[in-house]
Amino acid sequence: MNGVLRFLLWIAVALVGAFALATIALRRGEPISAMWLVVAALCTYAIGYRFYSRFIACKVLMLDARRATPAERLDDGRDFVPTNKWVVFGHHFAAIAGPGPLLGPVLAAQLGYLPGTIWILAGAVLGGCVQDFVVLAFSVRRDGKSIGQMARDEIGKLGGTVAFLAVIAIIVILLAACALVVVNALKSSPWGFFTIAATMPIAILMGFYLRRIRPGKVLECSAIGFVLLLIAIWSGQWIGHSATWAPIFTFGAPALALMIIGYGFAASALPVWLLLAPRDYLSTFVKLGTIAVLAVGIIATRPTLQMPALTRFIDGSGPVFAGSVFPFAFITIACGAVSGFHSLISSGTTPKLISRETETRMVGYGGMMAESMVAIMAMIAACSLQPGTYFAINSPAGIIGSAPQAAAATITSWGFPVSAADLETLAAHVGEKTLLNRTGGAPAFAVGMAHIFSKSLGGDAVMALWYHFAIMFEGLFILTVLDAGTRVGRFLLQDALGHIWKPMGRTSWYPGVIVTSAVMVAMWGWFLWQGIHDPLGGINSLWPLFGIANQLLAAVALSVATTILIKSGRLRYVFVTLLPMIALVTVTFTAGLEKIFHPNPRIGFLAHADQLAAQGAKAQLVFNDRLDAAVTAVLLALVGLMIAQSLYEWARILSGRKKAVVQESPFVASRLAPEEA
Amino acid sequence: MRALRLFWQTLREIFDEAAYERYLQRTGDVASRESFAAFLAAGKPARERKPRCC
Asked: CA A202 to CA A228: how far, in whole Å?
């Protein structure tokens, strides 16, 4: 294609994207097609990738295809393996995509589709994709070092310690929030519980199949596991409707929480091949397939967005979570826009597979764009529901009550008409007794997804199957995150405790495994337990905490990247990482301080604790709020220290008081032929 | 055709089939219960520490 045509093509993409963005931003009073969001997203990603990521690759990072990557230099056929860029892309995407980009946008939809959509697009193109890309590129230039190691090498010991503590905090809060989502999705749902419970024997069966019957045939085994899952979903309806079996599989929130805590402990201590590995394969298989099918479903059905662009809850009075658009929309949607957790993947397995430095652009920047698109799809699924239904599912009992008539009356009074009969009919359609107060985002996403799928395949008759498929899909995702996260947290603890007492650091020493697994599970189990007893539904406190922790880790990663740019003498381009870092620090510190000190009890932990104390509530509830406030304060203090140390380091380098030494691996010319790139 | 091959290659990499094949090449072993168990054992430390993102 010649230059003029290419130029005209990009002008056309920019114009179409601008028109789509203007439509979603300015159209008021009438529902719009979800395709406007899809078109706006695709054009924004195309422009961002073509121009901004190229600028970063060429000018800021100066990627060099002739420089051998660690995958080539340290090729051991196991950890370091030069791999085709599309294969690495798929591998990286499978690792970064989890339940976060599906749940955050669903929760943020209470503000309307506009704030969340704008943040997903701008946050990803200017922040999240940049973070994943630069961390990946810097890790490739440092033999695949982790973000913690880079923080220690480039900023100092404090940087490494803060990164370590931030990771532990994120894992604990993430696991608690995710577990709470599963509890809320499965409470009083025999069909849902049976389906999720069935994934465990299926995973164990897969483990034996792989080990004993067809060793190494993972794809074949995952396909068989998937078919068994479908059978479990299908048969779950008989369980749900059986007078004998339904009560056996019906549990309340406390019982489910205890089961999940027990599961997390067992999964962390059991052999990997038995449960974790096959579940991981099964989860990845279902995840990739379902995301692809959801994309096709949205394009095929082109649903209409029933949620307005902006709701009355932009003032901070929302029932799903309390707090105004700034800063709470920005921390509610972490994954899908900017996720600090990705810096662990970008400096974990992925840099060890990259064949050429230049491929970090497609894998790092492009991989995050794909995840961002998943978040847009989740936003569409949530906003295609009638707003009244959306609020009935996502609002805690403490706000709308748990009786259909009272809930419908409250929600209707907000300007989102819904009747008790509508709610009962919808619950019956999806095979549940009620959908009220199913906070956490998963059930609302499942209803939205079932709504989209049923329009293109099967109609209302199969809506219950699609709903339980979606619940199974999210439950599988989340339980995979739970068992992998508990195990990773356990190793981090063992590494740290091993410095104090050596036997604790030995991963083969069973008492150490048991103790650290128990500590890890106890930490997230505590937050889960407090979530299910929180009168505000738990998600109101846990999800913002998770968002704050996650975005703070992103700020840490971006401050490491900024330090490296300054040390490399690329001060003029430092805005690429510095501006998103400043934005994230502003957002997270504002949100963190509001979560601690805001006088509104629905927002501020301390105000809520005081309110509960004045009402004579249980001392445990008051303590929980004060603990949440303390955790938030510790997170803010740690990252504040880290940023202060970074600023000190930058000042010393820029003033010439310290020699800038970049900890890069020396240049070695690549021996890969150009066509292998 | 090339796209399909690449897609299949990606799936094999994501699901560790390619890694198992590389392991067999490296060790000169053949596919069997024992070699797959050894492959799993060799990859255990990395697999156990692999975070799954949110």
From this structure: 7
Contact A474, A443 (CB under 8 A): no
B38 domain-assigned? yes
For residue range A254-265, list pLDDT tens digits in order: 999 999 999 888
CA distance A442 to chain B (A): 14
The verdict on residue A633 lying in a domain is: yes
A283 pLDDT band, cuts 50/70/90, is: confident
Domain at A102, CATH number: 1.20.1740.10
Query: Which 440-469 residues of chain A touch chain B by CB within 8 A?
Result: none
- The verdict on residue B19 lying in a domain is yes
In a domain? residue A217? no
Whether B50 sits inside 8 A of A348 (CB atoms) is yes
Per-residue model confidence as pLDDT tens digits over A485-516: 888 888 888 888 888 888 888 877 888 888 99
Determine the 3-state secondary structure of A251 from DSSP.
coil
* pLDDT for A487: 83
Q: pTM of this prediction?
A: 0.92
Is the minimum CB–CB distance between B5 and chain A shorter than 8 Å?
Answer: no
Find out whether A135 and A557 touch, Cβ atoms under 8 Å: yes
- Per the prediction, chain A carries an average pLDDT of 91
Structural domain boundaries enclosing A647: 3-188+251-309+324-396+437-654
A596 closest CA partner among A545, A549, A638: A545
> How many domains would you assign to chain A?
1
Q: Which contiguous run of DSSP H or E holds residue A128?
A: none
